Amino acid sequence: MLDTTAALVGAEAERELIASLPASFRWGVATSAYQIEGAVDEDGRGPSIWDTYCRVPGAIDGGDIGDVACDHYHRMPEDVALMRELDIDTYRFSVAWPRVQPGGKGPVNPAGMAFYDRLVDELLGAGIDPWLTLYHWDLPQELEDAGGWPVRDTAYRFADYAMLVFDRLGDRVRCWTTLNEPWCSAMLGYHIGRQAPGRQDFSAAIHAAHHLLLGHGLGTRRIREAASRPVELGITLNTGHVLPATDSEADRDAARRADGLGVRIWLDPLTRGRYPADVLDDLAARGVHIPVQDGDLDIIATPFDVLGVNYYFASYVSGVDSAGNRFDAAGLPVERSVTTGRPVTAMNWEIVPEGFTDLLVRLSRDYPGIPLVVTENGAAFEDVPDENGSIDDEQRIAYLSAHIAAVAKARQDGADIRGYFVWTLMDNFEWAYGFAKRFGLIRVDYETQERTPKSSALWFRNLIRGVRGDA
Ligand code: FCB
């Protein structure tokens, strides 16, 4: 039996839920450096693993490449002006490590750092709070050549880089996220190979996971020690929300394993200083061990202030293949995604807003005392411009409305959620999917770089004004 609990609650109920959010709720939009900046060869920026991966034949749909992307590096003031029109109070962006420290070690590249200095000033001048992510997947290529995240030294390199950025921007930026979605960096990057650097080695992915966590802990400690004014430190996870396709023992065990690598392998060490026993057993059964050294878990469990949650869909897994087998040809336990026939976005991701409520309530229950902020939520649809180039993206509005209502519902059910950021400000380079998948509130014409707000942009602005009480 599929757990499809509540269906969409309907527009009126959604409006009521959204209206229950407090006037102090934080509203923002999110982006990341490689997806929007372009200017990959300018002002001393070094190559990242994404510059390299994009050049692997067949890696990116349509052969797309992020060399120019939204040209944000040159259009930043114009983009901040667009944000101002949205009436958001927060902009979540990432710093490109290879722009500020090209080889991943050594001194700062002043010209690269100057860009973020200008961005922060521009935001503050527009009354927008900068929310800075230090690592959104663009590892300097030199560090990958030295072994990448599976190698312990990368964690120390990350902490040094974090301090370079903090030394320069810590006087004006209060909210710092160490890592964006380390699951993707580790699993998609080193195991599944669907993201940079495109390796396929499960053991390397697990080593990467530990070193990402270690880098987070080291960076968090050093920023906290150096901060002379209050900072809000955090990490952003895409925990996913995985449910068993049926109530069978095999499906429940598959869901447990997926939850182990999606949620608990991250949050247990981050908040309790230990890896979950069942995850360690599962890994050992595959001959894989987490390379923990003395003191690592204390560092990883350094207290932090806010957990960023990225949510797009829920998924359902079965522990048997279509022939009913529990093990695949390689002897590994089966973990097979099952679709439920619900409507999907252009990513083919099923739309499950009630899964969002359940996830947020579960995170607050299982990991209490940590405020949550939704650092990404949004949807790609096949936007069709009318003859004037306008986009009436009703599907995106419906998606956002249902998911913001789901957040409000989770608050009513006891989850401590402080804010919500839409992914994303404007259409951009969607990693392995290239430019074909559009998630933006603002349309980008990649030929002319013209920006056109979609209906969802206006809708989001009105929603924010309504909740704040200044409609
Ligand atoms: C998340 C990423 C973000 C964007 C969205 C659609 O996993 O953090 O950069 O690609 O998915």
Write a compact overview of the structure shown.
This protein is of the alpha/beta class and 471 residues long.
What topology does this entry show?
Elements: H1 11-19, E1 26-30, H2 33-36, H3 49-53, H4 72-86, E2 90-94, H5 97-100, H6 110-125, E3 129-135, H7 141-145, H8 153-169, E4 175-180, H9 182-192, H10 202-226, E5 232-237, E6 242-244, H11 249-272, H12 277-285, H13 296-300, E7 306-310, E8 315-318, E9 336-338, H14 353-366, E10 372-376, H15 394-412, E11 417-423, E12 442-445, E13 450-453, H16 455-468
Parallel strand pairs: 1-2, 1-11, 2-3, 3-4, 4-5, 5-7, 6-8, 7-10, 10-11
Antiparallel strand pairs: 8-9, 12-13
The protein binds beta-D-fucopyranose.
Beta-D-fucopyranose (FCB) is lined by residues 32, 35, 180-181, 184, 238, 310, 376, 423, 430-431, 439.
Question: How does this model look, in words?
Answer:
The protein is of the alpha/beta class and 471 residues long. It has a single domain, classed as Glycosidases (TIM Barrel), CATH 3.20.20. Helix content is 42%, strand content 14%. It has 16 helices and 13 strands. The chain has helices at residues 11-19, 33-36, 49-53, 72-86, 97-100, 110-125, 141-145, 153-169, 182-192, 202-226, 249-272, 277-285, 296-300, 353-366, 394-412, 455-468, and strands at residues 26-30, 90-94, 129-135, 175-180, 232-237, 242-244, 306-310, 315-318, 336-338, 372-376, 417-423, 442-445, 450-453. The protein has an 8-stranded parallel β-barrel with strand order 1-2-3-4-5-7-10-11. Strands 6-8-9 form a 3-stranded mixed β-sheet, covered by helices on one side. Strands 12-13 form a two-stranded antiparallel sheet. A hairpin with a 4-residue loop joins strand 12 and strand 13 (450-453). Helix 1 (11-19) packs across helix 15, helix 8 packs parallel to helix 10 (202-226) and helix 9 packs antiparallel against helix 10 (202-226). The longest helix is centred in the middle third of the chain and has 25 residues, at 202-226. Mean pLDDT is 96; it is low at 1-8.
